[in-house]
Design a protein that fits this description.
Elements lengths: L10 H9 L5 E3 L4 E7 L3 H18 L4 E5 L2 E6 L9 H15 L1
Antiparallel strand pairs: 1-2, 2-4, 3-4
Helix pairs in contact: 2-3
């Protein structure tokens, strides 16, 4: 069965999505969203990354991220589509949920 390609968010949809993600910011000229996280120490940062990794596997949508001691930077984009899609928005909400839950 062929895989249906996912569409990029049109500017209006991108703006609406960003309203629901106030701690995220557009990156890569609007082709990605980014959020930087700060934790008490490396253990908390790593635990966060572990929880996000499990969500990423379930959603089959994996972040680009970096970790230095207590900091984690997350960038979300859909490479297959060439930019920001609803999958990135869904993943951002799921990541935010890790901090709340």
């Amino acid at each position: 069965m062929p895989i249906t390609p996912i569409s990029l968010l049109v500017p209006e949809a991108r703006e609406a999505a960003m309203l629901g993600l106030p701690l995220w910011r557009l990156d890569w000229d609007g082709r990605a969203i980014r959020r930087d996280f700060l934790f008490a120490d490396f253990g908390e940062a790593f635990a966060f990354m572990t929880r996000v990794a499990l969500i990423a596997e379930r959603l089959d949508h994996h972040p680009e991220w970096t970790n230095v001691w207590n900091r984690v930077a997350v960038v979300l984009t859909t490479h297959d589509a060439g930019g920001l899609t609803s999958r990135d928005v869904q993943m951002a909400h799921a990541i935010d949920g890790v901090l709340i839950g």
